[in-house]
Automatic annotation (TrEMBL):
Name of the protein described by the UniProt record: Phosphomevalonate kinase
GO cellular component, one term: peroxisome
Record keywords, A-Z: ATP-binding, Kinase, Lipid biosynthesis, Lipid metabolism, Nucleotide-binding, Steroid biosynthesis, Steroid metabolism, Transferase
Species of origin: Ogataea philodendri
Pathway(s) where this gene product acts: Isoprenoid biosynthesis; isopentenyl diphosphate biosynthesis via mevalonate pathway; isopentenyl diphosphate from (R)-mevalonate: step 2/3
Any Pfam family hit: GHMP_kinases_N
Domain GHMP kinase N-terminal, residue spans: 142-205
NCBIfam families: Pmev_kin_ERG8
């Protein structure tokens, strides 16, 4: 059984579309889980059933003729482009010769979806609790944590495990293989080549990320050339930059659900149109925004180093932060303020509501609270969510002080680790 984390895109929104720039993505404790079981081998066709028992009609069964692995057929007529794309890409890549009957069960932590019309169910061990919904998954609101990327990454690992002797997700080569396959599948399902930061975070955890050249993946989608696919996954240097970057000790990410909703493609389209029509101005804004993004990363790395090399000094700084003195964290505070300033400029000049006025008021208020280093509207922005960087000891007070501000703070923590193997015994009674 394998799991992949959700994400909060803290710095680098929009810029990450350009391989010139880097982004900082924080992996979160809400995870997607995938357990695969081989029911039988042999027979005339391969049959793969993917079950998501937390949702009404949450099962998709595909019959596959291995001589035509990219033409899997869903038995019930239900569509899930992310499941289908993942199965098609992996079977094309593996080109298995023996038919199998496989059942894959998917679970998702509560942070991914609205909890309206749901009930909790706990495993026999008491170690796992999930929310079970009375609606199909397509009718349950998402919170923007990257559920599709988590699904594809964990499903990729689970399905691969049915065809290899051992799948060690602690091995770098194996992680890269899973990452590359998941990126291709995710792009295929979306019908476009995205930046890939969400799949990268689902695989590798909290990272600073620079994207791949879209043409690498585009050729797979256009040609379905197996030889090219295998070479791309196993041998080609995608020239992605992935470096670990974690929040410093005692500083936590607080994620807030606004329950507003935004259409990311529309936001991106407006920003790209603005950039095309205002090349010189947009370059100036993006370069300055990038400086603030990288300054934030440098500031967090400095604090992480201090927490390890000067623990007593760092402890005193944290205590001062909780008391309202932010001077020891000024580089992080200034960087976040700079990020918000230029995202607001993009909002006003492009017409894309990256940081809408409603979010501005909320973030400005949160910034005035003791222990808060700053906050942003993560990812592409809009009305989905906000996230804050807060001293851990200040979190209860921040939650109390924002009770009247139309935000629901999610029970999430940062996860440095991305894809990982789980103890399936903890899930007994849930299948």
């Amino acid at each position: 059984m394998f799991s992949a984390p959700g994400k909060a895109f803290l710095a680098g929104g929009y810029l990450v579309l350009d391989p010139k720039y880097r982004a900082f993505v924080v992996a979160l404790s809400s995870r997607m889980y995938a357990h695969a079981e081989i029911v039988s081998e042999g027979g005339d066709t391969t049959e793969i059933s993917v079950r998501s028992p937390q949702f009404l009609e949450g099962d998709w069964t595909y019959k596959v003729d291995l001589s035509r692995p990219t033409q899997s057929q869903e038995v019930h007529g239900r569509k899930n482009p992310f499941i289908k794309a993942t199965l098609d890409i992996i079977l094309l890549y593996l080109s298995p010769k023996v038919n199998k009957s496989i059942v894959i069960t998917i679970f998702s932590d509560a942070g991914y979806h609205s909890q309206t019309n749901s009930v909790p169910k706990t495993s026999e061990s008491g170690k796992r609790t999930f929310r079970y919904h009375s609606q199909p998954i397509t009718e349950v609101s998402k919170t923007g944590l990257g559920s599709s990327a988590g699904l594809v990454a964990s499903l990729t690992a689970a399905l691969l495990s049915c065809y290899v002797e051992t799948l060690d997700v602690k091995n770098d080569a194996t992680l890269n293989q899973i990452h590359n396959l998941a990126q291709i599948s995710h792009c295929l399902a979306q019908g476009k080549i995205g930046s890939g930061f969400d799949v990268a975070s689902a695989t590798f955890g909290s990272i600073v990320y620079r994207r791949f050249d879209p043409e690498l993946v585009n050729k797979v989608i256009e040609t379905w050339d197996r030889e090219y696919l295998v070479n791309l996954v196993d041998n080609v240097d995608w020239k992605i930059e992935i470096s670990k970057c974690a929040l410093p000790s005692g500083v936590k990410l607080l994620m807030g659900d606004i329950v507003g909703g935004s259409e990311t493609p529309k936001l991106v389209s407006k920003v790209l149109s603005w950039r095309k029509e205002n090349a010189s101005r947009s370059l100036e804004v993006w370069e300055t925004l990038n400086k603030n993004n990288m300054s934030l990363v440098s500031g967090l790395e400095r604090l992480q180093t201090m927490s390890k090399e000067q623990p007593e000094t760092y402890k005193l700084l944290l205590q001062s932060l909780v008391a309202g003195n932010k001077s020891g964290f000024q580089d992080v505070v200034s960087s976040i303020q700079g990020i918000r300033k230029y995202l607001k400029i993009m909002t006003q000049e492009s017409g894309a509501e990256i940081e809408p006025d409603q979010q501005t008021k909320l973030l400005d208020y949160c910034m005035s609270l003791d222990g808060v280093l700053g906050g942003v509207v993560p990812g592409a922005g809009g009305y989905d969510a906000v996230c804050l960087l807060v001293a851990e000891d200040s979190i209860p007070q921040v939650i109390e002080n924002t009770q009247n501000h139309s935000v629901t703070w999610l029970d999430l923590r940062e996860q440095e680790l991305g894809l990982r193997q789980e103890d399936v015994s903890e899930f007994s009674g849930l299948f």
